From TrEMBL:
Pfam families: AI-2E_transport. It is a multi-pass membrane protein. This is Putative PurR-regulated permease PerM. The keyword Nuclease does not apply.
């Protein structure tokens, strides 16, 4: 290749690099908004199989949408209604228990006893230094608490934005698809529409499959924890449900959290925590080899190695949302490769 005007070539290359940098900065600045859009679209596709099922049974789309969203809202309300009394009672019990412990420690001259038995520890000086540090860093601690408060408020508005976007995507899903198809050449619209429907159906079935796994884990956890007399079974069933929504590591993480909290909340000589640990070890095996294959068999057909790689990559790039959407995205890519790229290669 002969370069007739090096200055022009360098100028165009520089403009291209600057444009790429500007676009990259814009994407980085809009990462939060893009995350909200991705989460809302992911949830909307999860409702789509239910809406399509109702439409096939001659429900108007508006009625199917209202019924699906209303059913989800009622279920969420029932969960919250069941959790509030249990959590309030447990918080009151913990307050009474640990208040008595603190009062016993305060009235027993523990510091003087430690100084007498272990003079090298200098417990009184340690307490004095700790109180001095607390006074000097009170403003910093207050600022941290304020920052946590702002974080909670931002999280609330983020959930609200995702909910509003989800409503829009659910109500206008067909219009969005038709608008996307019209941007393509007429000769490719039919094939693109077919692939798009398969991909969206795969994502929707994946979401429903994860929710079904979460419900199974939550219901079984609530039943077992109630039988063994565990602390706050409804709250820990919710933790089990939310954990099962996360592919690969969600069930394990939720199980560890539940066992550790039972160990902290129950009396020291209680056998609840190790019974819960034994239960979750058995449940994870049953879920991995019995429940999950049957629920997810029609959802996402992805080899195990690709599932692990996709989940790790998605989690690294986008956190929890990335781990959730990585597997259906991998399934969509495999579908495109099998039905588009490989046939085109065979024709050459």
């Amino acid at each position: 290749m002969r370069i007739e005007n090096p200055f022009r070539l360098g100028f165009i290359a520089t403009i291209g690099v600057l444009t790429a940098l500007v676009l990259g900065g814009m994407v980085a600045s809009l990462s939060t908004i893009l995350t909200y859009i991705g989460a809302a679209l992911f949830l909307a596709l999860g409702f789509e199989p239910i809406i399509a099922f109702l439409e096939r049974h001659r429900w108007p789309r508006w009625a199917a949408i209202i019924s699906s969203l209303g059913g989800a809202a009622i279920a969420l309300g029932l969960v919250v209604w069941a959790l509030i009394p249990s959590i309030a009672t447990q918080v009151e019990q913990l307050s009474v228990r640990y208040s008595s412990i603190v009062n016993d420690l305060a009235g027993s001259n523990v510091i003087e006893w430690v100084d007498e038995r272990f003079p090298d520890l200098q417990a009184q000086e340690f307490v004095t230094d700790a109180l001095e540090w607390l006074r000097n860093n009170l403003a910093t601690i207050g600022g941290g608490v304020l920052e946590v408060g702002f974080g909670i408020v931002n999280a609330f508005f983020g959930v609200l934005i995702v909910f509003i976007l989800m409503l829009y995507f659910v109500s206008s899903m067909n219009s969005i698809k038709r608008g996307f198809y019209q941007l393509l050449p007429a000769s490719k619209r039919a094939r693109t529409a077919e692939l798009t429907e398969q991909i969206t159906a795969s994502v929707g079935k994946f979401v429903l499959g994860q929710v079904a796994l979460g419900l199974a884990n939550g219901i079984l956890s609530f039943t077992f924890l109630s039988i063994i007399g565990a602390s706050m079974p409804a709250a820990f069933a919710l933790i089990a449900f939310l954990g099962s929504l996360i592919p690969l590591v969600g069930t394990l993480s939720a199980s560890v959290i539940i066992v550790l909290l039972q160990l902290a909340l129950m009396p020291v000589d209680s056998s609840v925590w190790w019974m819960a640990a034994l239960y979750y070890v058995i449940y994870m095996q049953v879920e991995a080899y019995v429940i999950s294959p049957r629920i997810m068999s029609s959802a996402v057909q992805v080899p195990g190695a690709i599932v692990v790689i996709a989940a790790l990559t998605g989690g690294t790039l986008l956190g929890l949302l990335g781990a959730l959407v990585a597997i259906p995205i991998a399934a969509a890519i495999l579908l495109i490769v099998k039905q588009v790229w490989i046939p085109s290669q065979n024709e050459r």
